[in-house]
Amino acid sequence: MTTLLQNASVLGGERRDLAIEGGVLVDPATVDRATAEVVDATGLIALPGLVDLHTHLRQPGGEQAETVASGVRAAAAGGYTCVFAMANTNPVADTPAVVEQVHRLGLQAGLATVRPIGAVTVGLAGERLADMTMLAQSAARVTVFSDDGKCVADAELMRRALEHAASLGGVVAQHAQDPHLTRGSVMHESPLAAELGLTGWPSVAEASIVARDAMLAEVAGARLHVCHVSTVETVEVVRAAKARGIQLTAEVTPHHLLLTEELVRSYDGRFKVNPPLRAERDVLALREALADGTIDIVATDHAPHAPEAKQTAFADAAFGMVGLETALGVVQQAMVETGLLDWAGVARVMSTAPAAIGSEPGYDAPLEVGSPAHVVLVDPDARSVIDVDRLHGRSTNSPFLGVELPGRVLHVWHGGVRTVADGRVGVATEGANR
Ligand SMILES: NC(=O)N[C@@H](CC(=O)O)C(=O)O
Ligand SMILES: [Zn+2]
Ligand SMILES: [Zn+2]
After folding, report:
1. Which residues are the active-site ones (predicted)?
2. If you measure from the C-alpha of residue 352 to the centroid of ligand 3, how many angstroms do you get, rounded to a whole number?
3. Annotated catalytic, 301?
4. Which of the four, 15, 126, 283, 327, has the lowest number of CB atoms within 10 Å?
5. Region 120-133 average pLDDT
6. What percent of the chain has pLDDT over 70?
7. For residue 413, how many other CB atoms are within 10 A of its CB?
8. How far is the CA of 149 from the centre of ligand 1 (A)?
9. What is the pLDDT of residue 430?
10. Is 408 helix (H, G, I), strand (E, B) or coil?
11. Cα angle vertex 149, ends 58, 290, to 5°?
12. How many whole angstroms separate alpha carbon 150 and alpha carbon 177?
């Protein structure tokens, strides 16, 4: 079947038609308009399928909070066609058996491509390296290695992990948190933390690890990826490392682009996340860094948690927020509506660049004829208050419940297969995965 998307604003620019046939984008001029399925895209923006380099799908072991199947529904609803699944499952994704299980569950779920991330250390214990070669050579083709949730704190181990990943053509994604500087920390270290009687998480606990890792990546001749940059100091370290020619990339989460520590005044566990929500000056520095390319990508750090883990005293609540369905709206509000990024820039930071970091093929020529048909149609003029009906995963720990956000993902194609139609997530299609 051929699908014609008529009059779309491609990457927010010129209005033209796009055509999908046989899983790829084809020249609309060659399409028989009498037989094609036509989607009126007038007023809609066409973006490439979004790629999330940092998603927690919780399976195996955390199925009460999320499964691969429920997580990819949330992903599709948010405009994602590919998600990288973090390794902090139970058991940890440190063996071919686990990454292959996650990969297989992704194929069964359809809707989006699931790329398992492999652990750096056995059991995320930070003591000895996982067999990274076996993970890379498994059917899951691991290219990203991360102990996310935990920092690879041992510098010697991190150096060897970087060397090893480089030899495999992969990348280490570091959760930058000095464990000694953050003992018992539950929110940003600030006057507000003192006022609220909560233990602070100092910015230097992040920046110091990023500085160390950048120097290790330099001596290893390796690529380093920095997870969830949250402070102005880390931005400065990343900027200096890039100026020095070090191969590092960095991500920022939607929540760190929009929210501040002030929300913690409510003592609501929904606002507890690692790294913590920071101050206004950090939020502004993160936006600027994303606009000027110091920060390469937006990654959701979608971190579902069951209600019991969140509805407790703030100090005891689990760290993490769901974010797949709200990411694009938050980026529209924080970056597009502020004039910091145009839609082509959004496509770069949410699709092309994360795919490149994760070595996911098919995203390097967004919306060009011949590319796989990973396409999203967004209504930028829609505005809606986020409620639980908008969330498709098993958990509802979103910091945006009750908040109005712009934009609405209306239609998504994953490799030419329709996964979202009129805002509704389609039936999982086995074999639609690539
Ligand atoms: N971000 C979080 O607050 N939590 C993540 C772990 C992580 O990303 O560090 C989780 O797995 O719940
Ligand atoms: Zn993390
Ligand atoms: Zn994470």
Report:
1. 301
2. 20
3. yes
4. 15
5. 98
6. 98
7. 26
8. 5
9. 42
10. strand
11. 100
12. 8
Tell the residue number behind the tokens 């779920």, with chain if given.
109
> Could you tell me the pTM of the whole model?
0.97
Report the atom number in ligand 1 closest to the C-alpha of 319. 3
What is the best residue among 59, 117, 148, 273 to mutate for testing ligand 1's pocket, by most ligand atoms within 8 Å of CB? Answer: 148
User: Which of 219, 233, 92 has its CA nearest to residue 176?
Assistant: 233
Taking the centre of ligand 3 as the mean of its atom positions, its distance from the CA of residue 229, in whole angstroms, is 11
Other CB atoms within 10 Å distance of the CB of residue 184: 9
ipTM over 0.90 threshold: yes
CA atoms of 99 and 118, how far apart (whole Å): 7
CATH fold of the domain at 49-357: TIM Barrel (3.20.20)
Tens-digit pLDDT profile for residues 365-419: 999 999 999 999 999 999 999 999 999 999 999 999 999 999 999 999 999 999 9
List binding-site positions for substrate.
Answer: 56-58, 88, 274, 305, 319-320
DSSP 276: P
Atom of ligand 1 nearest to the CA of 177: 9
Question: Where does the pLDDT of residue 306 fall: very low under 50, low under 70, confident under 90, or very high at 90 and above?
Answer: very high
Percentages of the chain per state (helix, strand, coil), in multiples of 5: 35, 25, 45
Neighbours of ion ligand 3 (CB under 5 A): 148, 301
The mean pLDDT value for 268-296 works out to 98
How do residues 28-51 score in pLDDT, each as one tens digit?
999 999 999 999 999 999 999 999
Rounded mean pLDDT, 163-184: 98
According to CATH, the topology of domain 2-45+371-425 is Urease, subunit C; domain 1 (2.30.40)
Under the banding of pLDDT at 50, 70 and 90, the label for residue 427 is low
CB-facing half-sphere around the CA of 1: CA atoms within 13 A: 7
Beta-ladder partners of 378: 45, 409
CB 174 within 8 A of CB 209: yes
DSSP code of 35? T
Verify cis geometry, omega within 30 degrees of 0, for the bond prior to 304: no
Kindly list the protein residues whose Cβ atom lies closer than 6 A to any atom of ligand 1: 56, 88, 148-149, 175, 273-274, 301, 303, 319-320
